[in-house]
Amino acid sequence: MKILKTSILSSLLLLSATVSAHEYNAGSLTIDHPWSKQVPPSSSVAAAFFDIENHTNKNDELIAASSPIAKTTELHAHIHQDGMMKMREVPAITIPANGKESLKPGGFHIMFFELAEVPKLGETFPLTLTFKHAGEVEVNVKVEKATFTPNSNKQPAMNSEHAHH
Ligand SMILES: [Cu+2]
């Protein structure tokens, strides 16, 4: 009985891995589909986005990020100020205990300055994330079209078929 249960669980895990394309683990954190919005070849900046799930009873914090593609990598937030959307650097992004934080356009994001190499559509590039408790993890960031919308929330099983087309 125990064996049966395990094999059901592993096929479920396999299924969810197929649906969400690529995800990474740092301790008990899951980083889901890191992606970057395609920028013009002349751009000196780029940004990266992903969801982070915290499967522990303790808050964690993303405290640093770095990538070989850029001279400087910062953690950013978007804020409304004087009726304008502005970005500013933040010292940390909290991932609540048993919760989730999303880095997405218009919200928290990873910002790359002074690009050594402008990432091209369809390519991936490495990004190292440092968490206060979970430590360091390297993920691969996929370059997507500017119109890309990540299927970030786990969809009901019946929707998973659409991902295969
Ligand atoms: Cu920014």
UniProtKB/TrEMBL annotation:
<dbReference type="InterPro" id="IPR007410">
    <property type="entry name" value="LpqE-like"/>
</dbReference>
<keyword id="KW-0732">Signal</keyword>
<dbReference type="InterPro" id="IPR058248">
    <property type="entry name" value="Lxx211020-like"/>
</dbReference>
<feature type="signal peptide">
    <location>
        <begin position="1"/>
        <end position="21"/>
    </location>
</feature>
<dbReference type="InterPro" id="IPR036182">
    <property type="entry name" value="PCuAC_sf"/>
</dbReference>
<protein>
    <submittedName>
        <fullName>Copper chaperone</fullName>
    </submittedName>
</protein>
<dbReference type="Pfam" id="PF04314">
    <property type="entry name" value="PCuAC"/>
</dbReference>
